[in-house]
């Protein structure tokens, strides 16, 4: 029987070690930034901590340091965790090291050998197609922030889950059913009332909110984390050692 569960926070990964696969979702903003960067042809290396960025930066050629911790760009970084900003840059030959408070911790947190996929509102249907073709049990993990399962991650998880249910999956628990029902038929603009969106507006980063709202299911690619970098799934299949 195929089943799907919805959960939140990096710490919850330990509860899903028996799943065939994990999908990391951090709509505002890490997975949107990562998917945008890789879709444009840039290599993207997620880091679970500020300490992990140091050896990564040392071995990469002129890397672009992208990220935030607690909402603020770390000292010495070149760019905030901003999908709008990464989309504007033309230096795609520079690999990006991506750091975020929660999202990159989820991406880097699967058990050894457990497939980890990266999704946001931009690649909904492609993610569902990829999961349905490859796996029987999957956990959709929202990154969360400040102890909250944020609205945008709930919505994205719910939309992915609803599409998986159409592919023959069943909800793995009551919470999964509840979250999916809560967001059924809701417009993407519903996330504007959430805490993450309010923070972007309050801190003068509304461009990223606009970017999220304007880019829904516009990338027909699945993305996976190969233990080092995030890649398009067709690239991972063609080159397993990448």
Write the layout of secondary structure elements.
Blueprint: E1 3-8, E2 21-25, H1 30-39, E3 44-47, H2 50-59, E4 64-67, H3 83-88, E5 96-99, H4 103-107, E6 116-119, H5 124-134, E7 137-142, H6 151-166, E8 170-171, H7 174-182, H8 195-202, H9 206-214, E9 223-225, E10 230-232, H10 233-238
Parallel strand pairs: 1-7, 1-8, 2-6, 2-7, 3-5, 4-5
Antiparallel strand pairs: 6-9, 9-10
Helix pairs in contact: 5-6, 6-7, 8-9
Quickly describe the structure.
By secondary structure, this protein is α/β, with parallel strands linked by helices.
Key terms:
242 residues; alpha/beta; three-stranded parallel β-sheet; globular; disordered C terminus
How would you describe this protein?
- The structure is a single chain.
- By secondary structure, the protein is an alpha/beta fold.
- The protein has one domain: ComB-like (putative 2-phosphosulfolactate phosphatase, Alpha-Beta Complex).
- Helices cover 37% and strands 17% of the residues.
- A 7-stranded mixed β-sheet has the order 8-1-7-2-6-9-10.
- β9 and β10 form a beta hairpin.
- α5 packs across α6, α6 crosses α7 and α8 packs across α9.
- The two termini are 32 Å apart.
């Amino acid at each position: 029987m195929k089943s799907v569960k919805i959960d939140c926070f990096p710490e919850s990964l330990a509860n899903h070690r028996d799943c065939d696969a994990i999908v990391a979702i951090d709509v505002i903003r890490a997975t949107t930034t990562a998917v945008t960067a890789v879709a444009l042809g840039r290599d993207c290396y997620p880091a679970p901590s500020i300490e992990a960025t140091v050896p990564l930066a040392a071995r990469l050629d002129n890397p672009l340091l992208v990220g935030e911790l607690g909402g603020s760009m770390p000292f010495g970084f070149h760019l905030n965790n901003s999908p709008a900003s990464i989309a504007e840059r033309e230096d795609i030959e520079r690999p990006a090291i991506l750091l975020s408070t929660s999202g990159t911790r989820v991406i880097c947190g699967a058990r050894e050998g457990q497939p980890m996929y990266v999704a946001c509102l931009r690649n909904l249907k492609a993610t569902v197609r990829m999961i349905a073709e490859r796996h029987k049990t999957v956990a959709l993990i929202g990154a969360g922030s400040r102890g909250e399962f944020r609205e945008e991650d709930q919505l994205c998880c719910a939309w992915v889950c609803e599409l998986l249910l159409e592919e023959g999956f069943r909800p793995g628990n009551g919470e999964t059913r509840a979250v999916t029902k809560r967001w059924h038929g809701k417009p993407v603009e519903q996330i504007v009332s959430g805490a993450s969106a309010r923070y972007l507006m309050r801190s003068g980063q509304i461009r990223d909110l606009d970017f999220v709202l304007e880019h829904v299911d516009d990338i027909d690619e699945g993305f996976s984390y190969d233990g080092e970098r995030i890649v398009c799934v067709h690239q991972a299949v063609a080159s397993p050692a990448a």
